[in-house]
Design goal:
The chain is α+β, with helices and mostly antiparallel strands and 209 residues long. 35% of the residues lie in helices and 19% in strands. It contains four helices and three strands. A three-stranded antiparallel β-sheet has the order 1-3-2. Helix 2 packs antiparallel against helix 3. The longest helix is centred in the middle third of the chain and has 25 residues, at 66-90.
Length: 209
């Protein structure tokens, strides 16, 4: 999300502002570039990382079955039960029996039951577990105009893929030697009339003096 000129995050979704100073293929490279700016005492509150051409990527983790669904549900439920048991233990009287183990067992049983029921309802439609991510094909580092030159100089020193550098102007293209329009004619001289081909079989025009 883009920062405003005061360094605050806008309350509403707002397009980022600034000049592109570098571009990278992965987010880790863009993050490393911003870390380099921070290490150089650059005001990083004027920097924004923007991902372009977003894609949703779903990576398949494993195949689901009743045993795997039950085991995963019991593990997640046991962790939740452990958390609840620790809270109850902290607020329980010192002489009361520990509720930690019952909370773990109850949470694991509830997670197992919930996971098996959910798998039974989605069986033959989704027999696999996956994880989804939003990934961009490229990441641009933007910076406010008053600090863009300094950011480019720092990233150039650390070997960043710096963008926005001035391009070399192309060389001027003159007339080609074979171009009839480039032939020289003295000032004031009348232009030669265009030569028309003679008709086939007709008389030949007299030669010009």
């Amino acid at each position: 999300m883009a920062l405003s000129q005061s360094g605050r995050i806008p309350r509403t979704p707002t397009l980022p502002t600034g000049e592109p100073v570098a571009s990278y293929q992965t987010y880790l490279e863009a993050q490393k570039a911003v870390d380099a700016l921070a290490d150089a005492s650059f005001p990083v509150q004027h920097v924004t990382i923007v991902g372009t051409d977003l894609r949703m990527v779903e990576r398949v983790i494993r195949r689901l079955s009743y045993p795997s669904a039950a085991l995963g549900g019991f593990a997640s439920g046991a962790w939740f039960g452990l958390f609840v048991g620790l809270l109850l233990t902290l607020f329980s009287p010192p002489n009361s029996a520990s509720v930690l183990l019952p909370a773990i067992l109850f949470g694991g049983a509830f997670g197992l039951l919930f996971s098996v029921i959910t798998y039974a309802m989605t069986r033959n439609r989704r027999d696999f577990a996956s994880a989804s991510q939003i990934v961009a094909t490229s990441y641009a580092v933007l910076c406010h105009a008053e600090h863009a030159h300094k950011a480019r100089a720092i990233l150039q020193e650390v070997g960043g893929v710096v963008s926005g550098t001035p391009a070399v102007p192309p060389a001027p293209v003159g007339p080609r030697p074979s171009d009839p329009a480039a032939s020289y004619s003295p000032a004031g001289a009348p232009a030669a009339p265009p030569q028309t081909p003679p008709p086939p079989g007709g008389p030949q025009p007299p030669p010009q003096a």
